[in-house]
Each structure stands twice: as structure tokens, then as C-alpha cells.
Write a structure and sequence with these properties.
This protein has 124 residues and is mostly helical. The protein has a single domain, classed as Orthogonal Bundle (434 Repressor (Amino-terminal Domain)), CATH 1.10.260. Helices cover 44% and strands 0% of the residues. The protein is built from 5 helices and no strands. The chain starts with 39 loop residues before the first helix and ends in a 12-residue tail after the last helix.
Length: 124
């Protein structure tokens, strides 16, 4: 597979839009955040890289990133950032926004597992 092309390199059976839920889809959820959403790196590995029989090295080359950068994402040490979201969109499909939304939902879910104790502020 050649690198450096702006066209999609392959199509993942997973499209990131399928992971989004709309606000109010679960009563009591914070703005429609999924209940226990998957870590985005796991999704990329299990539904995009593995089914295509790609190694992490091959996938990293195709995405135009280092093996270390992709491995850190797949193992949950880093998250999906805008530049990576564009690369994932071009390679696997889905919009860059949907990849970022998946990361944001995961991050928010993690924080909401142990929310800070903050008093609501009111006008004086």
C-alpha cells in the first residue's frame, strides 16, 4: 500500500458515526454520553486494523505517523487529536469530527465516573 495519498487507503468495517449517541438517548446521561464507551484505541485496533490484517507498523505507515504514536493511541496512552482524526477519517472513513466526538465522549465518561465536588454558582 502506498503512502502519501490523499485518498482513502482502505475502508474500515467500522465507521465512527456509529459510535455516537444523541443527547437524551439514555435518561440521566450527561448530554448523551455513552454508558461505558470503549477506549478509542481499542476500537481502532479491533474494528479497523485487525480485520484488515494490518500490523501496527503497516497501519502507522499508511496513516503517515510513527509506530510509537499509533501504538500509544491503540494502548490508550494518548487520545485522538485533530490531526489524527483527519488521518483516521481519510484511511478508515467517517468524519474527522466523529472520531473526535468518540474521544470526547470517552474522556467525559471517564471524568464523570468520579466528578469533582463543585457547588453551582448563583447570582448574588
Amino acid at each position: 500500500m502506498g503512502t502519501g495519498t490523499s485518498q482513502s487507503l482502505w475502508r474500515c468495517p467500522y465507521v465512527a458515526e456509529n459510535c455516537r449517541e444523541t443527547p437524551g438517548s439514555h435518561p440521566g446521561d450527561a448530554g448523551g454520553v455513552m454508558h461505558n464507551p470503549p477506549q478509542p484505541g481499542e476500537v481502532i485496533r479491533e474494528l479497523c486494523i485487525d480485520p484488515l490484517g494490518l500490523s501496527v507498523t503497516d497501519a502507522a505507515q499508511a496513516l503517515g505517523v510513527t509506530r510509537k504514536a499509533l501504538s500509544e493511541l491503540l494502548n490508550g496512552h494518548t487520545g485522538i487529536r485533530p490531526a489524527m482524526a483527519v488521518r483516521l477519517s481519510l484511511a478508515f472513513g467517517g468524519s474527522a469530527e466523529s472520531w473526535l466526538t468518540q474521544q470526547a465522549q470517552y474522556d467525559l465518561w471517564k471524568v464523570m465516573q468520579n466528578p469533582p465536588e463543585i457547588k453551582r454558582l448563583h447570582p448574588a
